[in-house]
Each structure stands twice: as C-alpha cells, then as structure tokens.
Amino acid sequence: MSHATPHQPSGTTPAHATHPHRHDPGHAAGDQADFLDLEATVLAEDTAAVIAWLPLKTAPRHIVDLGCGTGAGTLALLERFPSAEVTAVDTSAAHLDRLRQKAAAAGAAGRVRLVHADLDATPWPGLGTPDLVWASASLHHMADQGSALRTVYALLAPGGLFAVVEPAGSPRFLPPDAPETAPGLEERCHATVAHHHAAHVPHRGADWGAPLTGAGFTIDDERRRTIDVGPDRSDAVGPYALLSLRRMRGSAAAALSAEDLTALDRLLDTGGPHSILRHPGLSVRTERTAWAARRP
Ligand SMILES: C[S@@+](CC[C@H](N)C(=O)[O-])C[C@H]1O[C@@H](n2cnc3c(N)ncnc32)[C@H](O)[C@@H]1O
Predict the structure, then answer these.
(1) Ligand 1 atom with least separation from CA of 67
(2) SS3 letters for the chain?
(3) Each residue of 58-103: pLDDT tens digit?
(4) Residue 116, ligand 1, Cβ within 6 A
C-alpha cells in the first residue's frame, strides 16, 4: 500500500478507533467488518451497475471513497477504472485494515491511499482534488450532512462528480408470512429497533436530491433499484442473512414475545431444520438509490 497508514489518524483529525461503531453499539469491529464484506458480495452486481451508470465524461483519475468501510466501493471502482487511484477514508481502523488486505490480494495496493479520519471533525484531512467522490451508505452517518456536502463540493475538481448511494433501510430476508410458527416475525423485529435507528441514524434512507442541490450541485441523474438476490446468485446470501438476524436478536430480544424469540432462535440454529440458511424463501430484498451530482 503506497501511502497507507490505517493505524494512524490522519493529520490533526482525532482518531475514532475506540468508538468505531457508536451508531451500532454492542457489535465488535470484526463482526461489523464481516457484515460489510458479506453485504459487499451480495450487492456486488448492483454496485458495479451503479458505477457503470455514472454519467462520467472521462475516466476518473483520482477518486475519494468517503466512509469506505471494508472497501465495497473502493475495490469495485479500482476494477472499473484501472488507471485511477482511490483515497479511501474511514473512522474505523479495523475496516481500513480489512480494505488494505483486500486491495493487496487484488494486486491494487499501490493504487489505494487509506486515510484514517473522523469526517465529523473539521477541517477534513487533505484528500487532494478528486474528479469523482463516492459515498455509499455513509452520508447518513455524518453528524452534519450539510457541512459534509459543502466540503465535498469544495473538494471536487470543477466538473467533477459526487456519487451518493443510499439504502432504503435494512434488507429483508424472509417472505412476509414466514416463519411458519410466527408469521411476520421479521417485521416485528424491525419494529422493535426502529426507534434506535430513528434516534441514531435519522437520515438513513434519506432523499439526498434537495440537500445536494442546496450545496450547489447539479443533479445529472438519479437511479432507484429494487434488489432481490437469492442464494442461487450468491453464496454470501445465507451467511449475510444469518449475521444480520444474529445482530437483530441482540437488539430486539428484550422486546420480543416468547413465541417470537423461540422462532428467531430456530432460524439462528444453523444445525437445526429451520435454519435461515436453508429457508426455502430466503433472499436479500432491499432498495438502493443513487444520485449523480455534478459540481458545475
Ligand atoms: C454502512 S458502512 C458503509 C461502508 C461502505 N461505504 C459500503 O458501502 O460498504 C458506513 C461506514 O462509514 C464509516 N463512518 C461512519 N461515520 C464516519 C465518520 N464520521 N467519519 C468517517 N467514516 C465514518 C463507518 O466506519 C463505516 O465503515
């Protein structure tokens, strides 16, 4: 990795490594990194399609990935644009470390610069003058999104593009009438954690069109996609659903009825006949919207 320093906070920006998941308490960094890796695999086709859809005038040379996580966007961008370098920024040292390993395995270590920084702190570390900035599922984590959008605007080269990708919310894995002993269980689980998301990530699933325009961007295009990926299309679907439901249990258990908790535990019992891994209706169903916002 040419300039990678994932264990060092960038510039004067305070490190956030001791609180990497303050919006998602109770989950270890490794668990979160595994989750992001599985999600990246399940959504890889859609991520590649979003990148192919971007209304770029020329192939970008310098890309910044804001809140890069374990590299879902960074690696797809490196693959799509073989002449580009990516500056990948995240507050989690564990995520950056995972990304460093993956970039090395892909033979792309020399084209990635890892920046360990908290983007809620000002000023942002030096990120150069990118011609493409990518932010997937990360903007809603920023404490002051308006300020983040204005900073991206100032950062971008004139004519450069800001690609924002936003998931509609948490994916669903089971048909609405499943499981047999507790139909609708998944929605009841989500209802128990809705207040947590509303309090901690109120902008998750937000429409970024107006805020982007307010920050000076011109919206070149917008793309909304419904995603439905079954186990036949990705081996990661089962493990991703399992890890998601395990995390859900941690947050929802206290508020669930005894019947629901029993049904949830049967889904989580990977050796049992009702395991989510073998559920006949299993698929990852979600929606993602992307905005292509240009700095005029
Ligand atoms: C839901 S993950 C998305 C990761 C990746 N973009 C993807 O699509 O898989 C959000 C990421 O934003 C990072 N993040 C959250 N708040 C941040 C902040 N203030 N500064 C930098 N990164 C932040 C988290 O550590 C996490 O890796």
Answers:
(1) 12
(2) CCCCCCCCECCCCCCCCCCCCCCCCCCCHHHHHHHHHHHHHHCHHHHHHHHHHCCCCCCCCEEEEECCCCCHHHHHHHHHCCCCEEEEEECCHHHHHHHHHHHHHCCCHHHEEEEECCCCCCCCCCCCCCCEEEEECCHHHCCCHHHHHHHHHHHCCCCCEEEEEEECCCCECCCCCCCCCCCCHHHHHHHHHHHHHHHHCCCCCCCCHHHHHHCCCEEEEEEEEEEEECCCCCCCHHHHHHHHHHHHHHHHHHHCCHHHHHHHHHHHCCCCCCCHHHCCCCCEEEEEEEEEEECC
(3) 999 999 999 999 999 999 999 999 999 999 999 999 999 999 999 9
(4) no
